[in-house]
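Q&A log
Question type: sequence-to-structure
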Amino acid sequence: MSNQAWDERYSTEEYIYGTEPNEFFKQQLDLMKPDKLLLPGEGEGRNAVYAASNGWLVDAVDFSNVAKEKALKLAESKSVKINYFVSDLLEFHYPVNYYDLAGLFFVHLPKDAGRIVHNKIIASLKSGGKIIFEAFNKMQINNNSGGPKDINLLYDEKDILESFRYLEILMIESLSTELYEGNFHRGKADVIRFVGRKK
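Response status: OK
Response body:
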């Protein structure tokens, strides 16, 4: 989807993916000591605001201006601050060896673009930094709970292991779950969850 299409999708009073953080992100984040966090494809700010509320220094990136406006409004309502950059993920300037954690949640890019972005994110992590990742797997094509309708934009474990092959694998899991993330992620879903650490 183009940034104009995303602007249109986000142009509602409601938060289309809700205001609560991704559940897998919350579970993992709550185990960690707050530090510097990168959230590419962050949308309306639900994960960024949760992290900032728990002491993280957050840089969020998305190419929708409307999403940024809603994210900053959500942050203000929670009395926290986030840094929010409007940029294509391929073109964003990722500082090298800077972040302690990166989170990617339902960011579905064409395979070649996705690997470039993933490599840039890995390079932006400090040694020992982690990536928390959740996305729809290829079985999601059979569900109506969200995600791309193009199977080439969905993942399998082989894709993830290849894309993050330079990381130490701490967890990878494919599972069926129930999503309750606003009106656009709701119902039975097939997802992949991954946690990796930079060596």
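Response note: The two ends are 34 Å apart (CA to CA).
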